[in-house]
Amino acid sequence: MVDARKNRIEPGQAWDIVKDSKIINVAKGKKVVRFDAIINEQEEVLKKIMGPSGNLRAPTLRVGDEYVVGFNLELYEERFK
Q: By the number of CB atoms within 10 A of the CB, which of 3, 41, 45, 48 ranks highest?
């Protein structure tokens, strides 16, 4: 577990964390974007997972070989039954 308020995770570090995952679900409000071909979409993935401060958005959770970035209650209920 990393506290993003104390340890910044910048774009290069964020990419190193998520690049080997099979799926990334990014939640922002009621919208959820799912990336399956992560390696081919690096720029778009980084745009979605990075916050306005330039830090990795929170919460970011690793579930097996998937990542869930941001909060969306429906996504959490589906993913964490």
A: 45
Q: The dihedral of CA 8, 59, 53, 46: what is its sign? A: positive
**pLDDT, position 81:** 76
Confidence at residue 73, expressed as pLDDT on a 0 to 100 scale: 92
Q: In which residue ranges of the chain is pLDDT below 70?
A: 4
CA distance 69 to 80: 14
Q: Sign of the C-alpha dihedral, residues 49, 26, 31, 47?
A: positive
One-letter amino acid at 35 equals F
CA-angle at 26, arms to 24 and 32, nearest 5°: 115
pTM of the model: 0.86
